[in-house]
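Q: What structure does this chain adopt?
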Amino acid sequence: MAKCGACGPGYASPLDAMKGPREELLYLPCIYRNTGIQKPDYLATVDVDPKSPHYCQVIHRLPMPNLQDELHHSGWNTCSSCFGDCRKSRNLLILPALISSRIYVVDVGTDPRAPRLHKVVEPTELFGKGNAANPHTSHCLGSGDILISCLGDPAGNGKGSFILLDGETFEVKGNWEKGEKVPSLGYDFWYQPRHNVLLSTEWGVPKALRDGFDPADVEKGLYGRHINVWDWSTHRLLQALDLGKGSVPLEIRFLHEPAAGEGFVGCALSGAVQRFHRTQKGDWAAEKVIEVPSKKVQGWLLPDMPGLITDILISLDDRFLYFSNWLHGDVRQYDISDPRRPRLVGQVFLGGSIARGGPVTVLEDKELQCQPEPFVIQGKKVPGGPQMLQLSLDGKRLYVTNSLYSGWDKQFYPDLLQEGSVMLQIDVDTERGGLAVNPNFLVDFGQEPDGPALAHEMRYPGGDCTSDIWL
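A:
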């Protein structure tokens, strides 16, 4: 756990967090929905301590009590937003289920190496008290409550609302948002009280994306295009920044410095990273600062293949930005010392749909001279493409998993469902920039006791680069 004496959870500042202890354990949900294996999803605990005899091994599995949940993202009961409150302890992992709409509360404090189930919030609570469903991102608040964004309503329609959980009892308190204006879609969010703002993004209509991706649904307006700007104090929607049809803005990250009025959002289908910022007038605007060009291809769903930027994160010192191109197969590192002009300083290919020898032929590529080689580590040819990212506190190790969401894995990377996903580690050059795969690190979820599993988002017991918000 985070070592900060009796001062409460987390760290006083992002730079203090960078000096925290090296991660030794890592938690990540493993999914069986859509794989044909009739077993519940589970939370895996992985030993990532190189000095341990169990290095790179799953040392514990906590199965959920239900089938077909689709565990996805997770958060904490409390984090650095409550730093200084000695009554608080970061000891419970909040684990929303994207499809079943349950919320699991997992005790990781009693025995960090063997988590146990603390409470289940049933979907009827979300349906009845908030007319909300498909919970996604969970952030703890300085007030002690827990805020969770949702994708839709109980009928499977899109609805960008939020659920508030009591941080002690985990009872659903109702909706966070106020007023009549609610976005038609929801997904991720980040808040920054110093600027009195919460920003949220949009994926798609749950019943449209539930079992796969149909490009026609983009034209029908069933996928997102906005960053939604909320007043933090009144909980009312103020603005919708239109990033264009087919942009699909997913993960959104403010710079970690709490006074900074800017950050970045990764747009999946447009292959763009947009920088959002507060203007001199006091409202918010966005500008495209990175673009991954689509590749003209044969043997794929469409004639143009986007990179599909599916995860994005920022180092705690706000120097580097990382994102994954799930379809093209690469992870990139950008120097964002000048946030308006990111500079590519690291890139590594970890699979993807354009690897040489596969079914896809690249006809025109504005970036590469030839198709990349298939990614092989410790004799294993890795299926799928890089997806979820998590960075060590000191910024020197980037962890990667390669399952996006079971319905889309099944469509785009069917081999992933047969072989299971992996977790990899990339060594980061924090001086000049640069990425290199650690050849000694491989967690193969194809070897799980109940069959190949799909591993998704990663968390450390002491907090990380995407769950902590400083006030």
